TrEMBL record:
Pfam families attached to this UniProt entry: Mab-21, Mab-21_C
SMART domains hit by this protein: Mab-21 (SM01265)
Annotated family: Belongs to the mab-21 family.
Domain Mab-21-like nucleotidyltransferase per the UniProt entry, residue ranges: 71-261
Protein name: Mab-21 like 3
PANTHER family named among the record's database cross-references: CELL FATE DETERMINING PROTEIN MAB21-RELATED, PROTEIN MAB-21-LIKE 3
Domain Mab-21-like HhH/H2TH-like: 268-363
Source species of the chain: Cyanoderma ruficeps
Length: 375
C-alpha cells in the first residue's frame, strides 16, 4: 500500500509530495492492480495440469510446481504476456565445455559446407557429454545431432506433446497453441478476466555452478552484499530452448534472490519498481506485446541499486523514483540496456526502434512534469 494515499469509496485522493530538489509534485490517482495475482494463479493452475500430463507422456519433461504467485518458473512480462519455463529431466552433473567445436549441420540434420555461426554472449551450445549423468533419451535423434542437444528439435518434440496433452486433459476450451514463425511454443490461455499469451520454454536447470562468461560482480560493489553475491552464485543458472541452435542463459533464481529483501533497510526500492511498472503498463508502454517488459524494468532497478547502494538514497520516494525513471529514459533513448549479469549483452538489441522512440518521448514528457496519471 502506498502510504500517502487516502481512499474513500471509488475515489482516490492524492496528496502532493515534495522533496528536496524535486520540482513540482506527484499525483497518484489509482492503486496498483489486484487482478495480476488472480491471473497468475489461474494460468499456473492450467499450465501445471498441462505439464503434468506432458510429464506423464514423456519422462524428459517435468511438470511445473504449484507454489503460488512467487513461482520461479513463471515470469510476468506484461499483464497478458507470460513466460513459463518447463524443467527438463535426466541432465545432471553439468560442466563447462572447454573445447571449441565447429558445427556443420542444419536443425533437420542436413550437412552444411560452412559452419553454423557462433552463439552470442547470452547463448551457448550444449553437448550431452557436458553432463555426467543423462537419460538415454537425450542421446536419441529426435533431440540430438552429432552429440549436441538442439533446441529446435527439443521444441518440435515439446510442441507435439503440448498439442496432444491439451486434448487428453480436456483443455481445448482454455488453451490454444498459437502459430509461430519460429520454433518457440506459445499458447493462448483463457482466464476468467482475459486471454493471456504464454511462451512455454523447456529449460535445463543447472543449480551446481555459475557460468564462466557471467563475470559478476564486475568489481567490488556495495550492492549487493558479498554474502548475497555468494548465495546467488551458489544457485547456478538455467539454459532455455528459445532458438534453433543455441541455448539461452537465464538467471531467474539469481534475480529472485536480488528482489527478495530489497528493502530490509527500510528503503522504497520495491515501491519505486511497482509504481514504475504500473506507469509502464498504463501510460508509457501499454499493449499486449510491449517493447518494454517488466524484465527490462527489473534490470533497470538492479543497475540503479548498484549505482546508489546507500540506504539514504532510497529514503525519499519522489527522488528515488525520478532517478529510476531517468535511468529508464536514458536506456530507452539510447536503445541500450545492459544485461545485469552479462555485460556485453544489450537487452534492447532486437527491439523495434520506432516503438522505443515512442516510449522515450512519453518518458521525456513525464520527466518534464512528473505527474502520475493512471486512471
Amino acid at each position: 500500500m502506498v502510504n500517502w494515499l487516502q481512499y474513500t469509496g471509488n475515489n482516490f485522493y492524492s496528496q502532493c509530495i515534495t522533496g528536496t530538489n524535486v520540482s513540482g509534485c506527484f499525483k497518484l490517482i489509482c492503486l496498483l492492480p489486484t487482478g495480476d495475482k488472480d491471473s497468475v494463479e489461474e494460468v499456473q493452475k492450467i499450465i501445471q495440469q498441462l505439464t503434468a500430463e506432458i510429464s506423464y507422456k514423456a519422462v524428459r519433461f517435468q511438470a511445473i510446481s504449484n507454489s503460488g504467485i512467487h513461482n520461479e518458473n513463471i515470469k510476468v512480462l506484461a499483464p497478458s504476456q507470460f513466460l513459463i519455463t518447463v524443467p527438463l529431466r535426466g541432465l545432471t552433473g553439468y560442466r563447462e565445455c572447454q573445447v571449441r567445436h565447429w558445427r556443420y549441420y542444419t536443425v533437420n540434420g542436413t550437412k552444411l559446407l560452412s559452419s553454423v555461426r557462433d552463439p552470442e554472449e547470452l547463448h551457448q551450445w550444449l553437448e550431452v557429454e557436458q553432463f555426467s549423468k543423462t537419460l538415454q533419451q537425450w542421446h536419441e535423434k529426435d533431440v540430438n545431432i552429432d552429440g549436441d542437444l538442439v533446441p529446435a528439435k527439443v521444441l518440435i518434440l515439446f510442441r507435439e506433446l503440448v498439442e496432444k496433452s491439451i486434448v487428453s486433459c480436456n483443455l481445448s476450451s482454455k488453451v490454444t497453441v498459437l502459430e509461430s514463425f519460429s520454433s518457440v511454443v506459445r499458447v493462448a490461455v483463457e482466464t476468467s478476466e482475459s486471454q493471456v499469451e504464454v511462451e512455454l520454454v523447456p529449460a535445463v536447470e543447472i543449480p551446481t555452478c555459475w557460468p564462466e562468461k557471467a563475470r559478476w560482480p564486475r568489481c567490488l560493489k556495495r550492492w549487493p552484499s558479498q554474502e548475497k553475491v555468494q548465495c546467488i552464485k551458489s544457485l547456478g543458472f538455467d539454459l532455455l530452448a528459445r532458438s534453433n541452435y543455441h541455448w539461452q542463459l537465464c538467471f531467474s533464481r539469481a534475480e529472485h534472490i536480488l528482489m527478495e529483501g530489497l528493502d530490509e533497510d527500510g528503503g522504497c526500492r520495491m515501491k519505486c519498481f511497482r509504481v514504475m511498472r504500473q506507469m509502464k503498463e498504463d501510460v508509457w508502454c501499454a499493449g499486449n506485446k510491449p517493447v518494454i517488459t517488466a524484465y527490462h524494468l527489473q534490470t533497470v532497478l538492479f543497475w540503479t541499486c548498484e549505482k546508489y547502494p546507500r540506504t539514504k538514497d532510497w529514503r525519499c520516494f519522489p527522488e528515488a523514483f525520478l532517478r529510476l525513471v531517468q535511468k529508464l529514459h536514458k536506456c530507452v533513448s539510447q536503445h541500450f540496456l545492459k544485461h545485469y549479469f552479462l555485460k556485453n549483452t544489450n537487452l534492447l538489441k532486437y527491439a523495434n526502434t520506432s516503438d522505443l522512440d515512442l516510449v522515450a518521448s512519453k518518458l521525456a514528457v513525464f520527466l518534464e512534469n512528473p505527474v502520475f496519471c493512471l486512471d
